[in-house]
Amino acid sequence: MTNKLLLPNRFKKIGWFILIPAFIAGVILSITGYEANWLQTNVFAIVNNEFFGKTLYFQFVEINITNTAVGVLFLGGAMLVAFSKEKTEDEFIVNIRLTSLLWALLVNNILLLIAFVFIYGTTFFSVMVYNMFTVLIIFILRFNYLLYKNSKTVIDEK
Amino acid sequence: MKNKIKIERAIKNLTQEDLAKKVSVTRQTINAMEANKYVPSTVLALKIAKIFEKPVEEIFILEEAD
Description:
The complex is a heterodimer. By secondary structure, chain A is of the alpha+beta class. Helix content of chain A is 65%, strand content 13%.
């Protein structure tokens, strides 16, 4: 029972080292709205539409990439954590992983549904921003909680 | 599905850890099976039966609800 879609275990540690700082940075950014001057740069954009401006396709645009950088690091780190093998993999772990994924997707969509119905105006924009990351966050929390719970019961029955 | 892993383990004088190593799974897996929280794959059930030198049906038993 090996899963070819998963990375070797060592990537999980690397993932945590990226994810935790990126998470803290993300929280700070969303509170303060800070933009680093040194991250003002030219980037290639498939689509870029300016406020009250025209939409540009496949062009280089000058933009501040603070949010982009933190978002990319966060997603990259979270993906490494979520899609790496455990130290010891077996079919039970595979089972827990898949159940957690299903659970995360379900919970995320219930939360999204609630947000759809009860949140209006510009705040809904931030719901969409957060929702880009919540599936992975909920999955990582649920999966690690179940792993922890199972290792706990083993110790209890010793 | 019920199973007699715990009883068979006692007969063979194996710990959860020993059995886990023999069938190359983690101890949590053996523990979860004994607690009826996890139904093993056919491969794992066959491996366990092989260790206990018994047919699979003697270790894993269907229940009414199955």
